[in-house]
Write a structure and sequence with these properties.
Blueprint: H1 3-46, E1 77-81, H2 83-86, H3 89-101, E2 106-112, H4 125-130, H5 140-149, E3 153-159, H6 164-169, E4 176-177, H7 198-213, E5 218-222, E6 235-236, H8 245-260, E7 268-273, H9 291-294, E8 300-304, H10 324-341, E9 352-354, H11 364-376, E10 382-385
Parallel strand pairs: 1-2, 1-10, 2-3, 3-5, 5-7, 7-8, 9-10
Antiparallel strand pairs: 4-6
Helix pairs in contact: 7-8, 10-11
Length: about 400
């Protein structure tokens, strides 16, 4: 090999070696930087309960904005949707269209439905330990952010004591049978948590507080009662001395209120049977619900005033489902009277209204009649329920 060629080879080799060293050094420092940022991000996630805190060492452009909430509208006009619908971009386009074009200003979304599953992944330790989260809504923060951008008030629904997931996971928490001590189930095979079990209370508080921490503006508690269907005679209520079903439910109301209001005043509402509005004399209908025992402990009471859910012959009606105005107006007037008698404003009452076919085919006129009946009773808010989440747009006022 000539001297010139040898010299050229040495120069080329030097350049290659220098390039390799540069790449190695650059990769090393990039790795340190990446791992450091990743570690800081993990620490931020661990401290996510303080949602307004952002580490100054992290580029804030890559960090979600602090969680914000919308104040409760004076007149809430809401529809309910399941977590499955909320997690579907296709179905949400239909829901957004309804919200954008009608008088609706609020939406109710399942946080924990009657299967017992929590609808989105959580950073709450207790919820994670119990494994109740299921990713039905992929990005709950983005969903709520999108709804808030439309000025929609977002209510999170929590099915409290009906919970077949948790009764299987924690059978000691369940309502049991008198006959053999096994977990009691209703006609549909669904089971309930024991309303007097304080471990259950703590779990429900965790679910509610966690929902508020991700952006839900209000927490709505449903199934806050003992079972109503099935072989009720075989339920072991395990009532302590001097306690009743109603007093156990009231104790839960008090505990829930104290914990949901302890550090932050989280807006709350409670779903009750429609019949609580007309049941008097301490009648808890066998499920522990009495209107006066609930009123002091929630910001809003939501009687499920579905006409189809009143028995044939109620108030002399052969078919209450065919009398939407009459049923809703009568029950809401009674609710308002009893609320005023307790020293509260009637605006504390916010009924669930029927937009589904049961007992009768519900037309736009029948849905609208319930809204009118509510307003005529002196109330200013309502929520529509359809288990299929398909609502009668023509029954709503357009923007």
């Amino acid at each position: 090999m000539s001297h010139k060629k040898y010299k050229k080879l040495i120069i080329i080799s030097g350049i290659v070696i220098f390039a390799i060293v540069c790449v190695f050094v650059s990769s090393y420092f990039f790795s340190i930087s990446f791992d450091s940022t990743k570690s800081q991000s993990i620490n931020l996630i661990k401290n996510s309960e303080s949602t307004s805190i952002v580490s100054p060492e992290i580029d804030t452009n890559s960090v979600p904005l602090p969680i914000s909430h919308i104040a409760t509208p004076e007149n809430v006009k809401a529809i309910y949707i399941s977590a499955w619908v909320a997690g579907s971009a296709k179905h949400m386009q239909r829901i957004y269209n309804l919200l954008d074009t009608t008088e609706l200003n609020a939406i109710v979304i399942d946080v924990k439905d009657s299967t017992g599953r929590v609808s989105f992944h959580s950073n709450n330790t207790l919820i994670n330990e119990l494994g109740s989260s299921e990713k039905r809504i992929a990005d709950i923060n983005k969903l709520i952010e999108d709804l808030h951008a439309k000025n929609i008030y977002v209510i999170g629904r929590v099915s409290v004591f009906q919970d077949p997931y948790m009764t299987k996971k924690m059978p000691d928490w369940a309502v049991k049978r008198k006959s053999d001590g096994a977990v009691w189930k209703d006609r549909k095979g669904l089971s309930f948590l024991d309303p007097a079990n304080k471990a259950v209370w703590d779990y429900i508080v965790a679910v509610g507080q966690n929902a508020y921490s991700v952006g839900f503006d209000e927490i709505n508690f449903d199934y806050i009662r003992y079972p109503s269907d099935g072989n009720i005679k075989d339920i072991n209520y395990r009532l302590a001395e001097g306690k009743t079903r109603a007093s156990n439910i009231e104790d839960f109301f008090i505990y829930l209120h104290d914990n949901m209001k302890k550090d932050i005043d989280i807006p709350t509402s409670a779903d009750l049977f429609g019949l609580v509005t007309t049941s008097v004399g301490g009648d808890d209908m066998g499920i522990g619900q009495i209107l006066e025992k609930a009123l002091p402990h929630f910001d809003f009471i939501a009687p499920m005033a579905y006409p189809s859910h009143f028995a044939i012959g109620w108030n002399g009606y052969k078919n209450p489902a065919s009398k939407p105005y009459e049923v809703v107006n009568l029950t809401m007037k009674k609710a308002a009277e009893r609320t005023i008698a307790m020293g509260y404003t009637p605006s504390k009452i916010r009924p669930w209204l029927q937009d589904f076919d049961m007992g009768a085919t519900y037309t736009k006129e029948m849905v609208r009649a319930q809204i009118k009946a509510t307003n005529d009773a002196g109330l200013n808010s309502w929520m529509l329920w359809d288990p299929k989440n398909i609502y009668t747009k023509d029954a709503l006022e357009l923007n």
